[in-house]
User: Which sequence fits this backbone?
């Protein structure tokens, strides 16, 4: 992760991406893509979560765990860090594989359908690409689209998600069909959305906090907004929010540092760093087994 605040050539990362093979080097391409669009991808943290809690059968499971109502800050940070480790290190032995193992251990505890796992993977991929296109400071290249799609596909296979569509067009078709059949309003959706918005109001800049609901719903698919029980803001308000988001994301052109908002969020949960085995949810026996603290841990890092 770069710590330089300014770069001489804003297109240096794009050019590195174009020199790589989108299949053989998919992980590196995806990592560089995230670095080049760090601020543009910030809305996807919220909108991706909203997509996850828009099917009632998912929110019924998630409410029973209590994690996303009562420990949502840690859950959000843990998810970001696990993805960061896999994005940075891949799936070979080491930190990336350790993060993958932690993710799979968590998911195996819950009765989530294969279709819902596929839907989350598809939404993650499409959400990243859409955010980069909508708010990014430069054009998104087809080369990096192929690399991001391939990385997310391989990640899904490592998570035993076998039916992820292979192309963007197939992903859009899958998502539309899934939304038609599974995404609808339920009180459980609204309950988790309210919990998430309370958390996000403490994370966003102070001037956004009083209207965080309206701002984030402006950035969210209207089908998901309806399923969460909120009103979709009018076109003029949505355009103002999109314009402000693009203006903020324009800093990605020359500022390759991690967004301070993200670093502050991570530090609020892990002020002294984190160890991968402690990320995510654990059964009580797991907590007892991992009770020993490892003090040789890395400092908080940017998950994008």
Assistant:
């Amino acid at each position: 992760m770069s710590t330089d605040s300014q770069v001489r050539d804003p297109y240096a990362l794009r050019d590195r991406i174009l020199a790589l093979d989108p299949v053989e080097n998919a992980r590196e391409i995806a990592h560089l893509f995230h670095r080049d669009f760090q601020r543009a991808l910030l809305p996807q943290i919220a909108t991706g979560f909203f997509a996850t809690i828009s099917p009632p059968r998912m929110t019924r499971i998630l409410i029973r765990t209590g994690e996303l109502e009562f420990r949502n800050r840690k859950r959000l940070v843990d998810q970001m860090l696990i993805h960061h480790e896999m994005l940075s290190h891949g799936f070979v032995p080491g930190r990336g594989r350790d993060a993958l193992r932690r993710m799979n251990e968590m998911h195996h505890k819950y009765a989530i359908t294969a279709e819902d796992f596929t839907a989350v993977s598809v939404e993650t991929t499409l959400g990243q690409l859409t955010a980069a296109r909508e708010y990014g400071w430069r054009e998104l290249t087809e080369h990096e689209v192929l690399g991001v799609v391939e990385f997310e596909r391989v990640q899904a296979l490592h998570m035993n998600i076998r039916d992820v569509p292979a192309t963007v067009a197939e992903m859009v078709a899958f998502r539309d069909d899934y939304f038609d059949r599974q995404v609808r309003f339920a009180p459980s959706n609204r309950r988790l959305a309210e919990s998430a918005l309370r958390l996000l109001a403490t994370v966003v800049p102070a001037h956004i906090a009083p209207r965080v609901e309206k701002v984030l719903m402006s950035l969210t698919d209207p089908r998901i907004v309806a399923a969460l029980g909120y009103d979709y803001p009018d076109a003029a308000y949505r355009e103002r929010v999109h314009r402000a988001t693009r203006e903020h994301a324009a800093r990605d052109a020359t500022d390759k540092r991690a967004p301070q908002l993200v670093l502050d969020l991570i530090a609020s949960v892990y002020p002294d760093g984190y160890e991968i085995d402690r990320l995510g949810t654990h059964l009580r026996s797991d907590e007892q087994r991992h009770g020993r603290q490892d003090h040789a841990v890395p400092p908080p890092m940017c998950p994008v």
User: Anything to note?
Assistant: The chain is about 60% helix and 0% strand. The longest helix spans residues 114-135.
